[in-house]
Design a protein that fits this description.
The complex is a heterodimer of chains A (853) and B (119). Chain A is an alpha/beta fold and 853 residues long. Chain A contains 28 helices and 38 strands. Chain A has seven domains: 167 residues, FAD/NAD(P)-binding domain; 115 residues, 3-Layer(bba) Sandwich (FAD/NAD(P)-binding domain); 93 residues, FAD/NAD-linked reductase, C-terminal dimerisation domain (Enolase-like, domain 1); 64 residues, BFD-like [2Fe-2S]-binding domain (Arc Repressor Mutant, subunit A, Orthogonal Bundle); 57 residues, no CATH class; 70 residues, Alpha-Beta Complex (Sulfite Reductase Hemoprotein, domain 2); 145 residues, Sulfite Reductase Hemoprotein, domain 1 (2-Layer Sandwich). The chains are: A alpha/beta (853), B mainly beta (119). Chain B: InterPro entries: NirD, Rieske-like_NirD, Rieske_2Fe-2S_sf.
């Protein structure tokens, strides 16, 4: 694209949002404007019924306004488009707003079809489509006892689930002789009816509703064509969807006879500057009512707008889901309509499982399948169908229970096999991600986005990853590394139970080989968390990463940075002067960190003890900036000075930082204390966040900033200081005990079985009865704290290591600084080359040493 | 074969490294214990991937049968006996001759591996 085009998107459903996300990823500079008709940005419509079982609107949200702002995407909420003026390439909204476009994308979606039944427009006759609809349903349900869903398709059953969760006596009325007539055959439909009836939802098939009239026992009565009737308080229509194509119609775009905006393979409408994607688009006389094909269309348009050539070529409508708790799957030609198709059927009336497989006339290819009650074969069957793979000689084994026919090994799938259809991730993409270093499920998910859409492919993804790892000779276990066949948690247990005090003892008893840069620091951290020995004591020296060994942070040129602890960010003028003087005397670059302290850069290895002697003499302690340990407790100024503060946040931060300083953990830990709800210390982005209230302290846990931000969870409210500290003690100790190597608290929480509720039970209710033990362990660590720099300065043996050469007082000539903005910075390779030509290196070294002395 | 006396055996740090200056070249010297026997290795201190003199401050260990040091900068592993980088086999760093004589550690500037280009 030569010039930045104005790209206007109407609609912010799942597909519209996917388009925006994909376009932004491909073209960071595109001008994108989104007009969203609803009151909030895109949310997950696939899992809408979760709204009634505890999933909040925030959890259903696919994005946030902040995220759109951060990605520089313009958006308007509650914004309905009145008219498209194709000549002027202009869109007019109902509020009179005007938006010009170069390219227009219609992602207007669809609306629930309400059958023309007399009385369908009364109160408590509702549809099931948007979050607003759900709120209306909840309101109506609150004053109702019986609810009927008209429509026994996929969405109708989802809606029935919603009514059931709201505690209503639930009925499903379907015009066709069976449920889910599109996806299931008769046998499958019957099995589904039977199971759903047993779950307490009454199913009425073959019923044509003619009128909704006043009821006798309930609010309404449905009158059926066969003369029967059904009483209900609430009617929910879910009889299919209709594309929102009114806008397209009124501006003269070509639409289908039965609705839908006609698009070509590029998803272009009859106007080349207008595209249509998702459920409003009609491609080859077909509307695609699933999210995956909509996503495909979105990607096609992104490709078209960014110079690519992707085309839409139809989509597989296979689906697997859980309806009212019943597993249902449908693949391809479920009705065996292909000429010559053969069907294998397996029914287990006791377990209420129905499985049908449709194969080609020669028995070699899978054409379709129906699964009710058990979809464990779905992934394998789908791969056979999608990849046109040759079936085994006895294909029936694929659906027979526990027969010798093993499930399809993920290894046998071709690289082209689509694993995640929502995000169009092929097996090859996953293999490539693993080639580039992703080796666990979480990192593969975040790298490829696989399994982050509907989540239907989770099990398949896991087996692909596991098989691939196995084929690479990686044992698929949570083993730390090749030297220890244990997870970090198991090793910690072995250390504590066995009273093991050194790496070599642990290695000889439970490991093999010599260890490596993965297990050594992990075990070093476990030993420190368990026994709190001085980390540079002889047996532990080799276990530390260079930063831990030299108690400083190595920088790119091999020099180090130095960070003294400034608890809570509070520092006296005298101490500031000391830091300034040290920086001047040793010619260090200084920078204020995000954790409210000061980093001193450019120290050479041999300078570290002299620098620290000055700092320790002035009363400073090490800041552990190099360790997997507590970094800082950030604070706002709090009630002491601030007009709004309600508690002394600085005092609390200092107390907490001093309590947990030096605590070794699976990864670094950051904390913050805010003095009021304005949250100036940004505590909710920390591992442990504390916010003052009128009555005490609110405790937030497991937040994170950085690469993968996570908002901390509110753990407990209005705590007094003693309880606050007790909870933090327990949480941190549990984290240290159970987390994986290099696992931040945010990820630890996400992987914790039972999540926040479980953590509350363990910490607050002490359900496991380990509260006192955790507190005692923490107390032992707190009581044995010693500043490592002070200990090092007192230990001549340890100090010996702080020299560049064992046999010479020279300095490393490769560490060279130049001046920038009145401070030093490392010279670039090019600058070093130029320097070396001008001045002999030895001269620089001598000069540097002279300055130092 | 010219040997240079570098330091006392006690100056080495078990399961870790120190750095020595040998004819103007920086050499990383590691002391490991293999089957109860002390074993000393000497390689170039310069990490050609991180472009800094840091290998003596890396962590030593084994990967399969190979005895290696991991660069503290970007964690690539170098074989202590061949100088070869495991992640990028085309990168080979110098390996020096080393011996222990009467409690002293001696280095030989003559490279033990052919492929390495002197840093």
């Amino acid at each position: 694209m030569q010039q930045t085009k104005q790209i206007l998107v109407i609609g912010n459903g799942m597909v519209g949002h996917h388009f925006v996300e994909q376009l932004r990823a491909k073209d960071p500079s595109a001008h994108i404007t989104v007009l969203c008709g609803e009151a909030q940005l895109a949310y997950d419509r696939v899992h809408l019924s979760g709204y009634f079982s505890g999933t909040s609107a925030e959890q259903l949200a696919l994005t946030t306004e902040e995220a759109y702002q951060a990605a520089n995407i313009q958006y308007r909420l509650n914004c309905w488009v009145e008219q498209i003026n194709r000549e002027q390439q202009l869109v007019v909204t109902s509020q009179g707003g005007q938006f010009y476009y170069d390219e227009l994308v219609l992602a207007t979606g669809s609306y629930a079809f309400v059958p023309p039944i007399a009385g369908n427009d009364q109160p408590h006759c509702l549809v099931y489509r948007t979050l607003q609809d759900l709120d209306a349903i909840a309101q109506s349900a609150a004053v109702s006892k019986v609810g009927v869903v008209i429509g026994g398709g996929l969405l109708g059953l989802e809606a029935a689930n919603a009514l059931k969760q709201l505690g209503l006596q639930t009925h499903v009325v379907e015009f066709a002789p069976q449920l889910m007539a599109v996806q299931l055959d008769q046998g499958g439909g019957q099995m589904l009816s039977q199971k759903i009836t047993e779950l307490g939802v009454q199913v009425h098939t073959g019923k044509a509703t003619q009128a909704i009239v006043a009821g006798t026992e309930c609010r309404y009565q449905l009158q059926f064509a066969d003369g029967e009737s059904l009483e209900t308080d609430l009617v929910l229509f879910s009889a299919g969807i209709r594309p929102y194509d009114q806008l397209a119609r009124s501006c003269g775009l070509v639409v289908g006879d039965r609705g839908g905006i006609v698009v070509n393979d590029q998803c272009q409408t009859s106007d080349p500057h207008i595209y249509a994607i998702g459920e409003c688009a009609l491609w080859q006389q077909k509307i695609f009512g699933l999210v995956a094909p909509g996503y495909q269309m979105a990607r096609v348009v992104v490709s078209q707008l960014t110079g690519g050539e992707q085309k839409f070529s139809g989509a597989d409508m296979s689906t697997k889901l859980k309806l009212l708790g019943v597993e249902v799957g449908s693949i391809g030609d479920a009705h065996a309509r292909t000429p010559g198709a053969l069907s294998y059927v397996f029914t287990d009336p006791r377990a209420q499982v129905y499985k049908k497989m449709v194969v080609s006339s020669d028995g070699k290819r899978l054409l379709g399948a129906v699964l009710v009650g058990d979809t464990s074969n779905y992934d394998s069957l789908l791969q056979y169908a999608l990849n046109d793979m040759l079936l085994p000689k006895q294909p029936e084994q694929l659906i027979l229970p526990a027969a010798s026919g093993a499930p399809l090994a993920a290894l046998t799938l071709p690289n082209s096999a689509t694993i995640c259809s929502c995000h169009n991730v092929a097996k090859g993409d996953i293999v490539a991600a693993m080639d580039s270093g992703c080796c666990d499920l979480a990192s593969i998910k975040s790298c490829t986005k696989a399994s982050t859409g509907c989540g239907g492919c989770t099990a398949l993804l896991k087996s692909v990853v596991d098989d691939e790892l196995k084929s690479r000779g990686v044992e698929v276990k949570n083993h730390l590394c090749e030297h220890f066949a244990y997870s970090r948690q198991e090793l910690l247990h072995l250390v504590q139970v066995g009273g093991i005090k050194t790496f070599s003892e642990l290695l000889s008893r439970h490991g093999q080989g010599l260890g490596c840069d993965i297990c050594k620091p992990t075990v070093g951290s476990i030993l420190a968390s368990s026994w709190n020995d001085y980390v540079l004591k002889k047996p532990h020296v080799g276990l530390q990463d260079t930063n831990d060994t030299f108690l400083a942070n190595m920088q790119k040129d091999g020099s180090y940075s130095v960070v003294p602890r400034i608890a809570g960010g509070e520092i006296t003028a005298e101490k500031l002067l000391v830091i300034g003087q040290v920086a001047l005397d040793f010619n260090l670059y200084t920078k204020i960190t995000g954790g409210q302290r000061i980093d001193l850069f450019g120290a050479r290895l041999e300078q570290l003890p002299a620098i620290w002697q000055r700092l320790v003499d002035a009363g400073f302690e090490t800041g552990h900036a190099y360790g997997k340990s507590l970094r800082t407790v950030k604070s706002c100024v709090g009630s002491t000075w601030c007009r709004y503060g309600v508690q002394d946040s600085v005092g609390q931060a200092i107390a907490i930082e001093n309590r947990y300083k030096g605590l070794r953990a699976p990864h670094k830990i950051k904390m913050a204390v805010s003095g009021c709800t304005r949250e100036c210390a940004e505590a909710q982005s920390k591992d442990i966040g504390i916010i003052a209230t009128e009555n005490g302290w609110n405790l937030y846990v497991c937040g994170n900033g950085g690469m993968r931000p996570r908002h901390a969870d509110l753990f407990a409210t209005d705590l007094d200081t003693e309880t606050l500290i007790r909870y933090i003690d327990r949480i941190l100790m549990l984290y240290i005990r159970t987390a994986d190597r290099l696992q931040r608290t945010s990820v630890w929480m996400e992987k914790l079985d039972g999540g926040l509720d479980y953590l509350r039970k363990v910490i607050i209710d002490d359900e496991l009865g380990i509260g006192a033990e955790l507190e005692n362990q923490m107390a032992a660590l707190v009581n044995t704290y010693a500043c490592e720099w002070k200990a090092t300065l007192d230990d001549p043996q340890a100090l010996k290591r702080f020299r560049q050469f064992v046999n010479s007082p020279d300095a490393d000539e490769n560490i060279v600084f130049v001046e920038e903005r009145a401070q030093i910075r490392p010279a670039t390779a090019e600058e070093k080359r130029q320097w070396q030509q001008q001045i002999p290196v030895t001269e620089i070294t001598v000069k540097a040493l002279a300055e130092e002395n | 074969m010219a040997w240079t006396d570098i330091c006392a055996f006690e100056d080495l740090v078990e399961n870790s490294g120190i750095c020595a200056l040998l004819n103007g070249q920086q050499v990383a010297v590691f002391l490991l214990e293999l089957q109860g026997e002390p074993q000393i290795y000497a390689i170039g201190n310069y990490d050609p991937l991180g472009e800094a003199n840091v290998l003596s401050r890396g962590m030593v260990g084994s990967i399969g049968e190979q005895i290696v040091v991991a660069s503290p900068l970007y964690k690539q592993h170098f074989d202590l006996t061949t100088g070869q980088c495991l992640e990028q086999p085309e990168v080979v760093i110098p390996v020096y001759g080393v011996k222990l004589q009467q409690g002293r550690v001696w280095l030989n500037a003559e490279l033990q591996n052919q492929q390495a280009s002197a840093a």
